[in-house]
Amino acid sequence: MRLKLLILGLLLAGAARAELRIEITEGVAEAVPIAIVPFGWDGAGEAPVDVAGVVTADLERSGRFAPMSQDDMLERPTSGSDIDFEDWRLLGTDVVVVGKLLPEADETFTIQFQLFDVFRGEQLLGYRLPSTRAALRASAHKVSDMIFEKLTGIPGAFSTRIAYVSVEGEGPDRRFKLIVADADGENPSTIADSPESILSPAWSPDGRQLAYVSFEGDASSIYVQTLRTGDRQRLSAHAGVNGAPAFSPDGRSLAMTLSDPDGNLDIWVMNLASRELRRLTDSDAIDTEAAWTPDGDSLVFTSDRSGGPQIYRVSARGGRAERLTFEGNYNARPRVSPTAENELAVVHIDRGNYRIAIVDVARNTLQVLTEGRLDESPSFAPNGSTIIYATQDGGQGVLATVSVDGQVQQRIVSEEGEVREPVWSPFPPG
Amino acid sequence: MMHTMRNLIILAGAGLLVACGGQDAVPTADEAPDVVDRDGSRTGVGRDGVQEGEEFGDDTDLSDVDEDLLDERIIHFDFDSDAIRAEFEPVIAAHARYLADNPDASARLEGHTDERGSREYNIGLGERRAQAVRRSLLLQGASAGQISTVSYGEERPQVFESNESAWAENRRTEIVYPQ
């Protein structure tokens, strides 16, 4: 049974105004009741970050937890010794989180928190996390990651980021922006801005660079941009198609789609140090949308060599490609699960609708996860539990997420214009 | 917005006619036929209250046809197809003749798809549609050096709507003569 939840995400107006607002459209019935008590703060003025607020929003967005409203709390302990477990049992919560934000010297802080099993009265986790002022929000997401992993056994992905393309304005006045934001939509920053299309953003495995396709100058080129410096390099600008960049897991190569003079698309691999190109596929069909398997040994891609688009796999050394999808007449843009190498997210035509599906290559099964009409661009969270994708709502492009079991769905609404082509970053290094 | 786009295209078309010295080919209201088949003859429609009409001969001369066809710059395609539909063959033939007769002229073929499906695969489909028109132009006398192609996939719709008729408008190759 599924429980319908309609919760407006609360994104606080701050220095960086969020462009995205997250609504949980479908959550699991078995969401774990949890109480995240407001964190203590005895420094001067207002606390520089609401740790409990960030953690509450993160856990709620996961769809696996049902955080208690702060208004329903009978008491607000800030350390384990102050918790009256009987009170929390009566309130029906399974887990309680308490903590403090402690000011330290030189504009630094410590986030101290404890996680308790209410029924046993046992501490499950206790941790002190040092943080600079600038990193406080990121540190709060790290607290969410640790709580999530302790309670579910799955690493949390709240400290990750997403990149996406936004389109503002209409018709010939459209502007395309490549935006990087925190996974909760906060701290958006525009890293590229063009009157021509930007598409196919792809993260480097260290999360420091994005490759993307830009049509500036009325023709396609592939760029790689370093996020910290804004420095960018044009890696490919052949006559014809330059598309679908994908970094290899070791970060040394970039797979891409190039066309020959007759317009035939094949997949090539560029050595990023030497810029040398090596052809990976050679068919008369459209071969495109390559994605590496996590071990870097092979790539999956879209090809219509059998008629309609289907997914194929080829060794990273080249050779004959093997067809992987057989259900339906349209399976395209594969992405490999970072945690289950046999599972691909694809765009699949389901009774006339373009939807996101999971293909289990070993079992040869296909499960449709989404319910839209024009769903595209699936991208896995680095913990493999969730897929972010592009869909339409009222004729407008919006982003959405779905858990890989299809149970938890969220819509991410843009405050301005259309958003599309989301890509989830890898885990931050370290 | 849709009207703005159309107007831009019509203006661009008018520009070419002036540039290549053609006469004004825009039909006046009373010349514009409502039902015309391909050889220019008019046929009646049998229906209650509507009388049977009678056929009359082709009164257009070839140069007029060429100008009209050259004014058509958009070749439409069926879903997931790069096959040139019969109705567009005369249009492509006219452009091929123009390019063959004007070796200094050059054309850029811009392939497009509708919004459905994945973006990079659509770039491939758009390229295929541009190439289909290119091959047809080359077969009919244009030379390779006169033609360049680009695919925009679903990135530049002609009609910014999400329905069957918008998708049909957007599946196209545009023949663009750089000024």
Characterise the protein shown here:
Chain A has 430 residues and is mostly beta strands. Chain A has helices spanning 51-61, 85-90, 136-152; strands at 2-3, 7-8, 20-28, 32-36, 40-41, 65-67, 95-103, 108-117, 122-132, 161-168, 175-182, 189-194, 198-203, 209-214, 221-226, 232-236, 242-247, 253-259, 265-271, 277-279, 287-292, 298-303, 310-315, 322-323, 331-336, 343-350, 353-360, 365-368, 376-380, 386-393, 396-403, 409-414, 418-424. In chain A, the strands form 7 sheets. In chain A, strands 1, 2, 3, 29, 30, 31 and 32 form a 7-stranded antiparallel sheet that branches. In chain A, strands 4, 5, 6, 7, 8 and 9 form a 6-stranded mixed sheet that branches. Chain A has a 4-stranded antiparallel sheet with strand order 12-11-10-33, with no helix packed on it. The longest helix of chain A is centred in the middle third of the chain and has 17 residues, at 136-152. Chain A starts with a strand and ends in a 6-residue tail after the last strand. The model of chain A is unreliable at 1-17 (pLDDT under 50). Chain B has 179 residues and is an alpha+beta fold. Chain B has one domain (2-21, 60-176): OmpA-like domain (60s Ribosomal Protein L30, Chain: A, 2-Layer Sandwich). Chain B has 5 helices and 4 strands; from the N terminus they run H-H-E-H-E-H-E-H-E. A 4-stranded mixed sheet of chain B has the order 1-4-2-3. Residues 1-47 of chain B have low confidence and may be disordered. The A-B interface holds A 170-172, 197, 199-200, 215, 218-220, 239-241, 243-244, 257, 259, 262-263, 265, 286, 288-289, 302, 304, 308-309, 330, 332-333, 347, 354, 374, 376-377, 392, 395, 421 and B 1, 4-5, 8, 80, 115-121, 123-125, 127-128, 130-131, 134, 148-152, 155-156, 160-162.
